[in-house]
Amino acid sequence: MTVGALVAFNAYLMMLSWPMIAFGWVTNLIQRGMASWKRMIEVFDAEPTVADRKGARQVDMVGAIEFRNLTFSYGDQVILRDVSAVLPAGTTTAIVGATGAGKSTLLNLLPRLQDPPPGTVFIDGVDVREIPLEVLRGAIGFVPQEPFLFSATLAQNIAFGARGDQDQPERVEQAASTARLDKDIADFPRGYETMIGERGITLSGGQKQRTAIARALIVDPRILVLDDALSAVDTYTEEEILARLGGVMRERTSIIVSHRVSTVRGADQILVLDGGRISERGTHDELVSRNCLYAELYRKQLLEEELEAS
Amino acid sequence: MSSHEEDVLGKAYDARLMRRLLTYLRPYRPQVALAIAAIVGHSLLELAPPYLTKLVIDRYIPARDLSGLGTIAIFFFLTLAGSFALEYLQTWTMQMTGQRIMFDLRMQLYRHLHRLDLRFYDRNPVGRLMTRVTTDVDVLNELFTSGVVSVFGDVFTLVGIMAVLVWMDWRLAMVAFSVLPLIVLITQWFRSRVRGSYRTVRTWIARINAYLQERITGMSTVQLFRREQRDFADFDEIDRQHRDANVESIFYYAVFYPAVEFVGAIAASLIIWVGGGWSAQGALTLGSLVAFLQYSQRFFRPISDMSEKFNILQGAMASSERIFALLDTPVAIQEPHGSAPHLAPVGAPAAIAFEHVSFAYVEGEPVLKDVSFRVEPGQRVAIVGATGSGKTTIVSLLLRFYEVQEGRITVDGVDIREMDPASLRTLFALVLQDVHLFSGTIAGNIRLGHESITDEAVRRAVEAVHADNFIDRLPLGLQTPVAERGATLSVGQKQLLSFARALAFDPRVLILDEATSSVDTETELLIRDALKVVMRGRTTIAIAHRLSTIQDMDRILVLHKGQLRESGTHQELLAQRGIYHRLYQLQFKDDAAQAPRLHPVG
Predict the structure, then answer these.
(1) Alpha-carbon Rg of chain A, whole angstroms?
(2) Residue-by-residue DSSP string for B431-443
(3) For residue B452, what is the domain's CATH number?
(4) Looking at the structure, do residues B480 and B443 belong to the same domain, yes or no?
């Protein structure tokens, strides 16, 4: 063997050590990659249960709602049992009921935040599962019980769902005024351009709810849903908002959930939910004369007044 | 975007930060010393093999000295074995120390987070704080495990090789070193470019995190308002910027490493050309030439390694700056110095006083102005007022979630700033407007980790607020698991649980913050019934919008635009015909108009 061959042999041997180290390292990388990949697959494989069906029908919304023999459960827990109701277009329906009676769930099924069973929830006679989500949700102005706002300006939050020229400043201001947020905004240093959230101001619970109402109004929905949307608003402000909403609600199908008789008494029909069932329905006067749950609720509230007045 | 603090990255090296970082190594001095000794020994041993090769070629092969060759082979083996042992020792010691430092840092951060007040959490989203405690700490770990110590090794290897080369043949050493200016230029170029692009990458990853955190939390709102496509476009843009910034930094790496290799190849060519000539003329031994080539190969690896370390260093500087900024966030609510003040025995109702208290969340926008009132032991006081009048703030100040800016608050005559915040808060049970439930069972959510609260006490509390009605209908009763944030429970049910939670703790002061506003009238009556029992023997402060819930309170305080405007019993306030009277009128005038028979005037 020549000296040159020895040197070359030695050099090759040294070069061999690197790939060996790299091999162990790559094995480690592959294992970590596989672990991450498995977790990603879990996310990818989560089937969207709420999705547009093939041949979902394009419809022009009028806003007539119907619940037909609707039964709905979360796992083993039955939330709604055999709920049937017709909410004609342009009317206002109030839903009252005890805590946990299923009011919020019923409302969530309408824009398909959760999917109702087939053939149970209809808008203008079409199963909501057959309506494209874009059309369905575009037709519904939804004010949730606990509204979520984004870290952006007030104007951007109000115009969150705006389409086309709906985000014009006049429309934003009009929606804010109907939700009686305008006075609050006037007090803010930068008005509609005030940042809210982590890099801006913190809104009070009532201000959040009113922002959410303005956000729902700006999309000019056929259907307006208020899920106990005034719970953190004081009585004086609630009064004002309801008065201003009156005009808006006359042109739309509205659903209001509330605990206050004073809020729901003006509705065209009142549904009383009890343990997931509709136990009573009718107008305020009809229900009061029928001497059931609602009447009892009403009497209790009257009684309180009487006690206070004495 | 919450990336404003990520936007500004500090210097690549900051002596002040570095000194502070090194203090974390202090408890581990022996380990660090051991690791440094090991890596220096390792570097020195690494110097041996090429020289041994030279000896073999120059001395033992020409002399055909087989026993000498055997000795060298044993030396060669011992060197490699020693180098392996030392490297193992260094890696193991440093990794372990790094893990311990990470543990220390995380604990320090978490402890600090516990002491920060709510104002801080109003400003800092969860995602950002999570990053501090996880990712940023990991980056520092990298600095400690593969940065600080191995730099010593790299430096020793470099200096050692240079010394050996000069010693073997200083002329050929100069030839080999002639490429060094080129290396310096390439490294400078790489550093400045990578630094800029690293900063951009960090900024964009921070934006991605902030954006995702918010949009995922608010997913139902995004879906309801059909923002999916627009949000997707927004995210597409952020993600694209992130990708482009990464691609740019990858480009610099892709150029840098081959460039260093290339310069190494130039050096090797020069050595072969010049050294080969000298060797042919007999001015240089063959063994020296081979050793020179081997050294030159080992010479360039530490150089590219050190440039890589430079990145770790830069990342660590940025992370440590943010970690230290968090650790340096002053704790607004300090524990008192000196002896703890004496408070009335447990169980006795406490007296509370606000004395000329003023407060603003944002400077120039006062929420409370010169508020003074007293609550006697066992008294039940209600605070009413329009939205934004400052009711909730009063509670936050009392519990020292925020610190008063003017005036003082006392409990049993002691300024709350002189109490340890933890023991102050044990005096109170709070039923908040927003109920936060933790994942666990219903019983666990009532007990909140205090095992001293027995199953029976939990049961009693649940029954007292009539939450047993719905709990007993659940498949596992009190042991039913609660999903994160209580997603499967209604708002009213969550509120009942928070009532039970407050009762189970048997506090001296009960604070109800709009506690009954989301419960239907029937549940509200049940709760009011239970509360009467609970309020007995306790000081109670209630905040409510419904005037009906507070009329039997001992005293009602009316807040208006941050000022205390009226105070008295329900009847007194009605007689005053002021703000309270107006609120009262507004709430009931509709019903009064429609039910005149039930509502006698006067």
Answers:
(1) 29
(2) E-SS----SEEHH
(3) 3.40.50.300
(4) yes
Phi and psi based region of residue A274 (left: phi greater than 0; alpha: psi -120 to 50; beta: remaining) = beta
Give how far A88 is from chain B: nearest CA, Å: 22
- Rounded Cα distance between A270 and A281, Å, is 5
pLDDT 10s digits, B248-263:
988 998 998 899 889 9
Tokens 């039923």: give the residue. B431
Tokens found for residue B590: 């509709």
* Buried b / exposed e along A271-309 (16+ C-beta atoms within 10 A): bbbbebbbebbbebeebbeeeebbbebbbebbebbeebe
Q: B466 to chain A: nearest residue by CA?
A: A99
> Which of A161-165, B238-242, B462-466 is most confident?
B238-242
Helix ranges (H only) for chain A are: 3-45, 103-109, 133-138, 154-158, 169-178, 182-187, 205-217, 235-250, 261-264, 284-290, 293-309
Which fold, A65-139+221-309?
Rossmann fold (3.40.50)
Check A206 against B475: CB less than 8 A apart: no
Of B436, B437, B419, nearest to B428 by C-alpha is B419
Q: Which helix (H) or strand (E) holds B366?
A: strand B365-375
Residue of B nearest to A74 (CA): B488
**Of B1, B2, B14, the residue nearest B321 (C-alpha):** B14
Among candidates B512, B555, B545, which has minimal Cα distance to B530?
Answer: B512
A73: nearest CA partner in chain B: B488
Which tens digits make up the pLDDT trace of B297-349? Answer: 888 888 878 877 877 887 788 888 888 888 888 877 666 655 555 554 555 77
A104 vs B contacts (CB less than 8 Å): 490-491
Q: Say whether pLDDT at A195 is over 80.
A: yes
pLDDT digits (tens, 9 = 90+) for B273-284: 999 999 889 888
Q: Which of A160, A207, A265 sits opposite B387 (nearest CB)?
A: A207
The model's confidence at residue B547, banded by pLDDT at 50, 70 and 90, is low
Question: Pseudo-torsion of CA A178, A182, A184, A187, nearest 10°?
Answer: -170
Per the CB < 8 A criterion, the answer to whether A224 and A254 are in contact is: yes
Sequence spans of domains, chain A: 1-46, 65-139+221-309, 150-208
